[in-house]
Amino acid sequence: xxxxxxxxxxxxxxxxxxxxxxxxxxxxxxxxxxxxxxxxxxxxxxxxxxxxxxxxxxxxxxxxxxxxxxxxxxxxxxxxxxxxxxxxxxxxxxxxxxxxxxxxxxxxxxxxxxxxxxxxxxxxxxxxxxxxxxxxxxxxxxxxxxxxxxxxxxxxxxxxxxxxxxxxxxxxxxxxxxxxxxxxxxxxxxxxxxxxxxxxxxxxxxxxxxxxxxxxxxxxxxxxxxxxxxxxxxxxxxxxxxxxxxxxxxxxxxxxxxxxxxxxxxxxxxxxxxx
Length: 275
Fold this sequence. Notes:
Elements: E1 2-6, E2 10-15, E3 22-29, E4 35-39, E5 48-50, E6 56-57, E7 64-66, E8 72-73, H1 77-85, E9 91-95, H2 108-117, E10 119-125, E11 129-130, E12 135-139, E13 142-147, E14 152-159, E15 167-173, H3 176-183, E16 189-191, H4 195-200, E17 213-216, E18 219-220, H5 231-244, E19 251-258, H6 262-273
């Protein structure tokens, strides 16, 4: 499979989820560099953060990267999910802050703005990760399994001890058409009882009903309701696709996840990197 970048630079501005600050994002075509995040608000020479599993840290509420100088970029999973689906392997991502814009809480906007300017196939190739024998990881009641499969398929199951959100399961062939229709628009979510804790800890300061689903004991606060009846599990699939993009290689296999999450996703990516 050929490496891919974008045809021309593009810019986008939006709010960061956790700091609530306006973020200016500029995507610049590159060749054979991999994905590099560049913090233009920090000292030149120490402000580049390479998309590499070794640079991941603090995976509690998102997927984050940090370089050896401490320059960090937070909440990259939705953006990476879009990059995976567009097969983009090489890109310079300039940011004037420490997180990606949250957009509407999904990956849809990233897909739309990149598709508008188009993609450019490069001469070099990228080696896919092919699942030839079953591999798995388990931590308590969280599991991820990968099985041999001619294509890319995801099966995901979530379960919560909650009066409204209990369990959901979804399964999709992962291709761009299905992703755009069924997964890309699924938004991030949280519970109403978490809001006070998050704000006290200077998290989710940019969170609103325009960019997240807030779950109450008997429904959601969002006036327009849900985009899909099972939007929650679809968003978890979106996250998993983005988290496994940390390897910057296409995947061929059937991945089954049960109550996973960013930390387990990245541990599983480490296993896949050794296949």
